[in-house]
Amino acid sequence: MKDSRTNYVIVGAFVLLMLGGLITALAVLTGRTGPTDPYFTVYDNVGGLKFGTQVMFEGYPVGQVESIQPLRTEDGRTRFRVNMNVQSGWPIPVDSLAQVAASGLLAAVTIDIRGGEARELLPPGAEIPGRAGGSIFTVMEDVAGEVQGLTRDSVRPLLDNINKYVMALGGLAVESSPEIIENLRVMSEDMSAFSRKLNEQVLSERNVASIDGTLANAQKASAEFAAMSGELKAMSGQVNSLITTLDGLVADGREDVATALGDMRYSLDTVARHIDSITYNLDTTSRNMMEFSRSLRQNPGLLIGGTPPRDEAQPR
Per the domain annotation, does 296 fall within a domain? Predict the structure, then answer.
C-alpha cells in the first residue's frame, strides 16, 4: 500500500510539473510573461491586424494587440482604435510613431513603434500617433492610385489639348499653345513628385533589402531543389538497375523453379500413395506406446530389469 501511494505521489508531481511547463510555454508564446502597460493608436485601415499581432519597438518585441474598436468620427468617417499591451516600464518617447509594417514580402504584419528623440515619455494609457501603410504592397497600391489619378487629371487633358492643337494646325479648330505648355509643366511636376515618392517608399533601403533577401532565399531554395532533383534522378537509375537485375534473376531461375515444383509434386504424390500404411504404422506405434506406459505404471521395476507381477486371474 505504501509503494502504491508513493507511485501516485510521483505521477501526480510529474503531471503538475508538465502542466506548469505547458502554462509557461503558452505564456512565452503569447508574450504574457509579466506586467504590461496599456497604450492605443488609431488607424484608418487595420488590414492584417488582429488579436495577438506583435508590437515591436525598433524591431524588438515588446507586446501585442489586445483588441480593435471601430470609431465613428464627426465627419462621418470610420476609424479604428487599436488597444495594445506593452511591457511594463518600457520607455516610449512622446514623439514616437506606431507604424503598421511587415519585415518582408511574406512576413506577418506587425505594429512597429519608431522611437522618437524627445526625453519626455508617454504615460501608460496614452495614444501613440499611428501611421498605416508600412508594407510594400500598401505603398505600391497608393502609388498605383496616384498614377491612375495622374492619368485621369493630367495625361488625358494633355492628349485632348494636343489633339485639338493638331486639328488647329490643320485648320479644323483654333487652340492656344500656352494651355498645352501649362499642362506639360503640371504633368512634369506630378511626374517628379511621383518619382520622388517611388524612390522614398517603394525603393527604400529597407524594402530593397527585403526584396534582396527574398530573392536570395528563392535562389537558395532553387539550388537545393536542383540538388534534390539530381539525387532523385540517381536513385531512379539505381531502382531501374535493381528491377533489371531482379528480372534477370527470375528469367535465369525459371528452369530451377520448375524443377523444384516437379520434385515437390513427385514427393506429394509418393506421400499420398503411402499415406494409408503410414497412418497404420502410426496407429500401431501409438497402441504399443500406450501398452508400454500401462506396463510401467503397473510395475515400474521393468525399467531396471524386474519381472511383471503375477496376474491373479491366471490359475496357479
Answer: no
Rounded distance, CA 142 to CA 202, Å? Answer: 10
Range of the domain at 147: 138-203
Q: Are residues 239 and 172 in the same domain?
A: no
Any domain includes 20 = no
Q: Are strands 97-102 and 78-87 parallel, antiparallel or unpaired?
A: unpaired
Residue 160 forms part of a structural domain: yes
Asked if 116 and 43 sit in the same domain, the reply is yes
Per-residue pLDDT of the chain (316 residues), as tens digits, is 556 677 777 777 888 888 887 777 666 655 555 788 999 999 988 888 888 899 999 889 999 999 999 998 888 889 999 999 999 999 999 999 998 887 666 667 889 999 888 899 999 999 999 886 555 555 565 566 666 666 666 666 777 777 666 566 555 444 445 666 777 777 878 888 777 777 766 666 777 777 777 888 888 888 887 888 778 888 888 888 888 887 777 777 777 777 888 888 888 888 888 888 888 888 888 888 888 888 777 777 666 665 555 666 666 5
Q: Specify whether 61 is located in the same domain as 115.
A: yes
Stated as kind and residue range, the H or E segment containing 254 is: helix 254-273
Pairing label, strands 109-114, 54-57: parallel
Last-in-domain residue among 103, 133, 163: 133
Distances (CA, A) of 276 to 91, 221, 279: 103, 75, 5
Handedness of CA 120, 125, 126, 130 (dihedral sign): positive
Residue 189 is assigned to a structural domain of this protein: yes
Q: How many domains is the chain partitioned into structurally? A: 3
pTM confidence score: 0.39
Nearest to 56 by CA among 121, 110, 131: 110
